[in-house]
Automatic annotation (TrEMBL):
Domain Peptidase S9 prolyl oligopeptidase catalytic: 443-651
Classification via SUPFAM superfamilies: alpha/beta-Hydrolases, DPP6 N-terminal domain-like
Gene3D superfamilies: alpha/beta hydrolase
GO biological process, one term: proteolysis
Alphabetic keyword roster: Hydrolase, Protease
Alphabetized InterPro entries for the sequence: AB_hydrolase_fold (IPR029058), Peptidase_S9_cat (IPR001375)
Name assigned to this protein: S9 family peptidase
Length: 651
């Protein structure tokens, strides 16, 4: 695997189907233009072949309409340049009446016949159209994603005031609208609420809406409401929980939600059912079964995923993380759970119409592929992974180990061209989250490092997803039981793989993995070199600066810096920075508002003042997701810096 191999791959995501076709996105990397290009493809069920449907490279959300056509949003022919704009009062002072308000077209929807033909413009809008459904009479119902105007100053009166991937969010809002073919547009919800998601019923008469109050401090819980499309009124039917998903089922509503009372923000959700008027709410899933809904399996070899929940025949089908894999299951209204797809790896998205079951998945050391499920067998329909034939891959080996009464799986990737009896450096990788999971899926970064002559090893310590609330709950325990698990794992790896040079070890990780890297170098000198990315170093400043700090610090440290500063500081890696002797590379993005830049800067400055060899690389314009969805050239530069830093100390 080369440093830039990710640019040569095709990434499938977002699948849907009708009786004749499966439709999906293919994302490719344009390294020279430093962009990702996304087009719509079809799989013809009868001809059993893939067909490229669009080629603008700018095609987004799509859906089938009742006439069999595919309607999609696209940024082709849309002016995406941000324009400086002052408040209207100041514009009048500067320009007087000479400046006329011009309506900017922000969204265009196109319609295309999957049987052939060119895409034609269907609707256009001055609003930013997100998710949409077809209504009757050539109307659509859609989310309008309002973005704050770009100014040379910021008025801040709310919390959070910025958000990772969005920047300053004062003035950002998502509303629900109806638009007809003549351009007549009507906003549905009031200014007091903000829309998170919505689903239309089959008869197109009602929609179930997840929304929150538009408050000065963002609330942690949200609401479910029913929108009557005849009156355009939203009636509240559930509150007091955080709802991740809601849809119509049978004569009522099904929801994935949690009240967070057991294990806080990272608590596994439960399944609830209630009448359409909000009465007779009952929990369907058992308290004895923890389900980690959605896909928490990490990788840098995907670009988007897909539909994770769907209602079919009074059952809810869903993707969840089970131990180290993302699997697909179903639950009925009596709480009976059935496995549908449970192979090792990661189910990325699926579509099921009651007859045909299609899904995308990562299997073995392959890219995401399209599959059909027939008689409980996975039939692979695409072969994007043929591009991997041009690179060298090292298989992932597994072993079991125990620590403190818990069982774990350890993963090891040997260097490409490994020779038994020869000594090699080793790298411990730590995932983010902490409630995510490593699996057996392809990682470009790990395989690249293996091609550079390193053993790469990783596991899922306590705090990880897929093993229930008791396992994932490390609130107030950061740097203790998880540290013990990682050190025990490292001991086990070194015992089982004697060709790893114990004097040439590296540790690296991002986000929570960056926190643990910072923590580890302050508590042990066993690693010769370290790489800390998008990290947390100081919970006390994280509290006021991170987009989630105001709620995450209280929850995860079980303390508030305003009330118990010492407890928060005890759990901060920065407190132990004076102990660090390990040369450390810090990588951070200037627009990372999840783990803000100041977190990496504080650790860097502390090591610098203590004469520890260190380097800080800041990526301008990038955010917390740099390693996975950052601009291609930035991703390349990031790997180059890691490669050179490790070579300096391990080769």
């Amino acid at each position: 695997m080369k440093i830039d191999s990710f640019k040569d791959f095709k990434y499938i995501s977002n699948i849907d189907q009708n009786e004749n076709f499966v439709v999906y996105h293919i994302t490719t990397v344009n390294m020279k233009e430093n962009i990702y290009e996304k087009n719509i493809y079809l799989y013809d069920k009868k001809l059993k072949k893939q067909i490229q449907l669009t080629n603008s490279g700018k095609d987004g959300y799509f859906t089938f309409f009742k006439d069999g056509s595919i309607v999609f949003s696209s940024s082709r022919n849309v002016d995406s340049k941000k324009k400086e704009k002052l408040p209207k009062e100041l514009e009048e002072i500067i320009y007087g009446d000479s400046k006329k308000e011009e309506k900017e077209i922000k969204s265009r929807l196109y319609k295309i016949n999957p049987n052939g033909g060119e895409a034609v413009e269907f609707l256009k809008s001055e609003h930013s159209i997100g998710k949409f459904y077809e209504l009757n009479d050539n109307k659509i119902i859609y989310t309008n994603n309002i973005s704050a105007e770009k100014l040379d100053y910021q008025d801040i009166t709310k919390l959070p005031f910025w958000f990772n991937g969005a920047g300053y969010i004062y003035g950002n809002k998502t509303d629900l609208h109806i638009l007809d073919e003549n351009g007549n547009d009507k906003k549905i919800n009031s200014d007091e609420i903000e829309i998170s998601d919505f689903v239309l019923n089959k008869n197109k008469t009602y929609a179930v809406v997840i929304y929150s109050n538009n408050t000065d401090v963002m609330e942690l819980t949200n609401y479910i409401g029913i929108l009557d499309l005849s009156t355009l009124k939203i009636k509240e039917i559930s509150k007091g929980k955080v709802h991740y998903y809601a849809d119509f089922i049978k004569d009522g509503i099904i929801s994935i939600a949690t009240d967070m009372k057991k294990t806080g923000l990272n608590e596994d959700a439960k399944v609830f059912y209630f009448d359409i008027d909000g009465k007779n709410e009952k929990q369907i899933s058992s308290d004895n079964i923890d389900i980690a809904f959605f896909n928490s399996v990490g990788t840098d070899a995907r670009q988007g995923e897909g539909n994770a929940v769907q209602i079919v025949d009074d059952k809810m089908y869903y993707i969840s993380t089970y131990f180290d894999n993302a699997v697909l299951s179903s639950i009925d209204l009596d709480g009976n759970i059935e496995e549908v797809i449970s192979r090792n790896g990661s189910v990325e998205g699926f579509t099921y119409d009651g007859n045909d079951f299609y899904f995308t998945a990562m299997r073995d050391l392959q890219l995401p592929e399209l599959y059909k499920l027939e008689n409980n067998q996975e039939i692979k329909l695409t072969d994007f992974s043929k591009d991997l034939e041009a690179v060298n891959l090292s298989k992932i080996e597994e072993f079991n180990f125990e620590n403190d009464g818990n069982k774990f799986v350890g993963y090891v990737i040997k260097p490409v061209g490994y020779e038994k009896g020869k000594k090699y450096p080793g790298i411990l990788q730590i995932h983010g989250g902490p409630k995510t999971a490593y699996s057996t899926v392809l990682h470009h970064e790990m395989q690249f490092l293996a091609n550079q002559g390193y053993f790469v090893f990783y596991t899922n310590p306590r705090g990880s997803s897929g093993r229930g609330d008791d396992f994932s709950d490390i609130r107030g325990k950061y740097g203790t039981i998880d540290f013990d698990d990682l050190m025990k794992f490292t001991d086990e790896v070194l015992e089982k793989y004697s060709d790893i040079d114990q004097l040439r070890l590296a540790v690296m990780g991002g986000s929570y993995g960056g926190f643990m890297t910072n923590w580890i170098i302050g508590h042990t000198d066993r690693f010769k070199v370290a790489n800390s990315q998008r990290s947390i170093s100081n919970w006390t400043s994280f509290y006021g600066v991170s987009d989630i700090g105001y709620c995450f610090v209280d929850d995860q440290t079980q303390a508030n810096p305003l009330d118990n500063l010492e407890k928060v500081w005890e759990q901060s890696p920065l407190k132990y920075a004076k102990n660090v002797k390990t040369p450390t590379l810090f990588i951070h993005a200037s627009e990372d508002y999840r783990c803000p830049l100041e977190q990496g800067v504080q650790m860097y400055a502390s090591l610098k003042m203590n004469n520890v060899d260190t380097k800080l690389v800041i990526f301008e314009g990038e955010n917390h997701d740099l390693s996975r969805t950052g601009k291609p050239q930035a991703r390349l530069k990031r790997l180059y810096e890691i490669q050179k830093w490790f070579e300096k100390y391990l080769k």
